[in-house]
Design brief:
single chain; alpha+beta; Glutaredoxin; 43% helix
Length: 148
């Protein structure tokens, strides 16, 4: 009985060894790390100075942590390669949480932000050039950016 048990266990291990096929890694194509809009980690004061010095406009995504359309834009529109190419070349890009970032309440008050997301285009003097409210498609964002 003992020999039968040992032979059964050994046979089971041998059978498993011959039927085991290692899982081959799946190669997926991922977006490059450099795709999409690169948001600078600048305060408003530094961004305004940089905009004035460079002649670029500032693009600000004013959002909140609880805003669904804001999160969707961060995952989709802002990750677009084409949007990234245009925005990274033409603008100083900032993401400002209206509730938690240091500049959030001041920016929201100064530019009358009442809904999220609100996308602002501001010149180096702090003057509002263009405002978009709500979720924007890649096409709409590119159209506005190319028109500025």
């Amino acid at each position: 009985m003992r020999n039968t048990l040992i032979i059964t266990v050994v046979a089971a291990f041998v059978a498993m060894a011959f039927t085991y096929a290692p899982v081959k890694p799946v190669h997926r194509t991922h977006k490059t790390v450099n795709s999409g809009i690169k948001f600078d980690k600048l305060g408003m004061e530094k961004a305004l100075k940089q905009a004035k010095d460079s002649g670029k406009l500032i693009f600000i995504d004013v959002h909140t942590s609880w805003c669904g359309p804001c999160k969707e834009m961060a995952r989709t529109t802002f990750q677009s390669d084409e949007v990234g190419k245009v925005f990274n070349k033409k603008f100083i890009n900032l993401k400002i949480d209206a509730e938690t970032d240091a500049d959030g309440p001041d920016v929201s008050k100064k530019y009358s932000v009442t809904a999220y997301p609100t996308l602002l285009f501001i010149n180096g003097d702090g003057k509002l050039v263009k405002r978009l409210v709500g979720k924007q498609s890649e096409e709409k964002l590119l159209s506005v950016a190319n028109g500025l």
